[in-house]
Amino acid sequence: MTSPHAETPFVLDAIDRRILAALQENGRITNVELARKAGISAPPCLRRVRALEDAGVIRGYHAETDPHSLGFEITFFVIVGLDSQKDVVLAAFEKLVAEWEEVRECHMIRGGGDFLLRLVARDTAHENQLTQRLTGSPTVSRVQTLQTIRTSQNLAGVPLET
Q: Can you give the pTM of this predicted structure?
């Protein structure tokens, strides 16, 4: 695995992979429990975690919240087409949607559109308002919304062979 922050590739061994797998499963695990799962003692485990953080392999720790409990009843995806693929236009669109708190993910994509967004909305009226904001945005030529009915899998991280 190559870290975007390192000049040389960050090589993961089996212990690093066990550490990452355990942290992806439970980011609140204690260092002692993490060390036990990794098969090493606590001090070297903490040093490895810090090295993984410093290398940019571990980018952060987050609480997974329940949108419904917080008043967001709708999760939807939007495929956005822009009228130009010039870098300045792409960057301006990314800057625009980065300011919207409802936009939870923004991916530049290939094939079928320029961006894929994941948004949350309190209700249908809020979803419609967000869609209208998108369609009225400068340089947006096409918007296709896809409302989530049910999410059966939403895993953090990436597969890690241990």
A: 0.85
